[in-house]
Design a protein that fits this description.
Length: 233
């Protein structure tokens, strides 16, 4: 049925969350796995908030380096299938809540990163950009030559999303004849608001657990997203 939907669609948009990358070995940093309970003083939502970054910068980077930087991770079947569908002219945009850059590693070109990317980094003082290696290899807080703090271009809790990215995401969702949502429980802002703009034919949900969009879906697939999409590579 997924194959039929894809065959008759010409403007597919994919909207994905943390579940897309778990098969690449990147755990959802929000998941309460007990690890951070032992190791960290605060929940993840606190440790990657703007105010925590400002007030406890060193601890922010400790957590960031340990839990959010996964530079050796490789794209999985889901990333590769989406890249293949884009090359085939079927898929027009990937909208992701992930910050790991794996869609681009897989070859996707039109990727809208709602929460930014760990691969882009810049000095808060002078604006010069830095490669992720500088941040990954820094002992403590990564500093620019001008002594400013280098921060990742990701959206922290308490921060606004990028307007341009949001506008483009809405445009693509509005134009889509098929929307595939995968690897997200849709609980994270701004997912729910964005998806209201979809007016196309087929809505497909690929998620292991139920979401509040299930009732609206034309097809629900309760599988690993890599298994569900792998046949399109
Ligand atoms: Zn600087």
């Amino acid at each position: 049925m997924l194959r039929d939907f894809i065959a008759k669609s010409n403007y597919i948009v994919f909207f994905g969350g943390a579940g897309v990358s778990t098969e690449s070995g990147i755990p959802d940093f929000r998941s309460v796995d007990g690890l951070y309970n032992q190791q960290w003083k605060y929940p993840p939502e606190v440790m990657i908030s703007h105010s925590f970054f400002e007030s406890q910068t060193e601890e922010f980077f400790d957590f960031y380096g340990a839990k959010l930087l996964h530079l050796d991770a490789q794209p999985n079947k889901a990333h590769l299938a989406l890249a293949a569908l884009e090359k085939a002219g079927k898929l027009k945009a990937v909208i992701t809540q992930n910050i790991d850059g794996l869609h681009q590693k897989a070859g996707s070109e039109n990727v809208l990163e709602l929460h930014g990317s760990v691969w882009r980094n810049y000095c808060l003082n002078c604006g010069v950009t830095y490669s992720v290696d500088v941040v990954a290899n820094a002992a403590g807080v990564p500093l620019c030559e001008c002594a400013g703090i280098i921060r990742p271009d990701i959206v922290l809790y308490e921060e606004m999303l990028d307007d341009d990215v949001m506008i483009k995401a809405i445009e693509h969702i509005s134009r889509a004849d098929m929307l595939i949502i995968g690897g997200t429980s849709l609980g994270v802002y701004p997912a729910a608001g964005l998806l209201q703009h979809f007016g196309g034919e087929n809505l497909v949900l690929i998620n292991k657990t139920a979401t509040h969009m299930d009732k609206a879906a034309d097809l629900i697939i309760r599988e690993n997203i890599g298994d569900a999409l792998g046949c399109f590579i």
